[in-house]
Amino acid sequence: MRRHDSAALPLPAEGRAGAARPRRNEWHAFGLLLPYLWEFKGRVLVALVFLAGAKLANVGVPLVLKEVVDGLDRDAAVVAVPFALLVAYGALRFSNTLFAELRDVVFVRVTQRAIRRIALTVFRHLHSLSLRFHLERQTGGVSRDIERGTRGISSLLSYMLFSIIPVLLEFGLVAAVLLAKFDWRFPAITFGAVAVYIAFTIWVTEWRIAIRRQANELDSKANTRAIDSLLNYETVKYFGNEDYEARRYDENLRRYEDAAVRSESSLGLLNIGQSLIIAAAVTALMVLAAQGVVARTLTLGDLVLVNALLIQLYIPLNFLGMVYREIKQSLIDMDRMFRLLEENREVEDAPGALDLPPGPAAVRFEHVDFAYERSRQILFDVSFEVPAGSKVAVVGHSGSGKSTLARLLYRFYDVNAGRITVNGTDLRDLRQASLRAAVAIVPQDTVLFNDTLRYNIHYGRPEATAGEVVEAAKSAHIHEFIAGLPDGYETGVGERGLKLSGGEKQRVAIARALLKDPRILIFDEATSALDSKAEQAIQAELDRIARGRTTLVIAHRLSTVMDADQILVLDHGRIVERGTHWALLASGGAYAQMWALQQREKEAAGEGSAPQPA
């Protein structure tokens, strides 16, 4: 079996808050998108065929219109109305719309499936990242990045297929017509104007993108500020800081407002310049066409043809600045989302990782060192064993590292030195899913989903029956409370369970853990939110539940761990005492001092005292 010991305490890359991200070309995101489109390559090709059909019909309309105008010219020899040409004109108009709509219908599945698959991939990846990432993240900013990224996929594909490619195709067709039917001056003016137009648009848009990027950063900050404030609604109220929070939020909004105003003001400059270039080119071409009609080198139909072709070419060019800006912004937004996929998984399954075999599970910590940050080590050479089916308790003052043991056992983090084993196998050699399926925790700070009580209990084992959910609630002594509610198990608990009291939330957490039916149980201050009476009522049930299971109890109230097979006293990350309750009291060390202090607190509160050793 390989070993993972290391004397160093490295800080993972994702733990370096504020690390600058290198800038890279936005088009890098388009390359990351291509594999998601490959699944529907057939649909993409069909959509491109319909697109080409729509553009051919669109360019065919002016050509037919020219023939209609020339056919109706009084100087022409034709004496009948050209009905066939008029029918062809109508058919081409309809074909343009028909092919465009068919293109949309065919391609919509490609867009939506790509968005779905990428969003799911990002969602799964975020859940696969370590607890460190989620403790350091800003939920509002991350959610906004995902939202803008998925929207950016839709915008990019829409503009690429429905704007850029059609304009290029139409430009080529118009160029072919001008070269075939008119002298060199017509395509020269057209191409020259288009070149100037594109250069001007890209130059101004690149300048505007920097402003837009700043506006988006400020928008994310404002959104993060708002969500963080609302999630801490009660804290804001406790300290009467509504105006303070509003000022902080408004400061972010003010900066966003300034950036947004600069962005919109620069749009006016772009539109004026584009209109000037197009107007100058159209005027020059119409003058040339009019001179040709007067000189009888061109017909009236040719004048109409030139005008119609230029309108069809320049109308989409009018949107080029917006399209280019939106494509660049979509690529930036997608890149921000794809960067989430590049966040390193601090904790990963090793190649060939094993499943935890069924049966009783024994846990062992062997000379474990751990630090969340390089400058602050939490655990020092911690070694202990929890034999299969036994109960081991860890006690100590706040900040001594008790809850860190639970996080390491769940493998939210990997140890920096030493190892943790289950039945002799290093946790790093086990599949995380297999390990976590065998472990259930009742945390000190219970956070519930914004759903019903039934959903939150059922979450412990989604395949459990309704009867098993009720039995778990009864074991956690919360069934009667739920049954007395107007909506019973369908009662909503609110954001993070804020509609429930601390004790009620903790009972739901206990029921959820029981429903999971784990081999390893972790009680992390499981009764900390309960009063003494409620704690006594549920403690016997917890003892019954823990019987026969490997149980790690992290506790502050020493009265809840008196029956533990072994009690560990943790102080500043080191085990300073270990033994049974009575043995530790007899030794007169740190545990005996904590016990005496808690007994005095109980007596002062009039709750009586626990039994003393003989």
CATH class wording of the largest domain: Mainly Alpha
Strand percent estimate: 5-15%
What structural category do the secondary elements indicate?
A: alpha/beta
CATH topology of the largest domain: ABC transporter transmembrane region fold
User: What's the arrangement of strands in the largest beta sheet?
Assistant: 6-7-8-3-9-10
Question: Which architecture of the largest domain would the CATH scheme give at its second level?
Answer: Up-down Bundle
Name the overall outline. elongated
User: How much is the radius of gyration in Å?
Assistant: 36 Å
Secondary-structure topology with pairs:
Elements (H helix, E strand, L loop, with lengths): L27 H10 L3 H31 L11 H46 L2 H6 L2 H43 L3 H47 L1 H6 L3 H53 L5 H19 L1 H22 L21 E11 L2 E11 L4 E5 L6 H8 L7 E6 L2 E2 L5 H6 L1 E4 L10 H6 L7 H10 L3 H5 L18 H15 L3 E5 L7 H15 L3 E6 L10 E6 L2 E6 L1 H7 L2 H15 L10
Parallel strand pairs: 3-8, 3-9, 6-7, 7-8
Antiparallel strand pairs: 1-2, 1-4, 4-5, 9-10
Helix pairs in contact: 1-10, 2-3, 2-5, 2-9, 3-5, 3-10, 5-6, 5-9, 5-10, 6-8, 6-10, 8-9, 14-16, 18-19
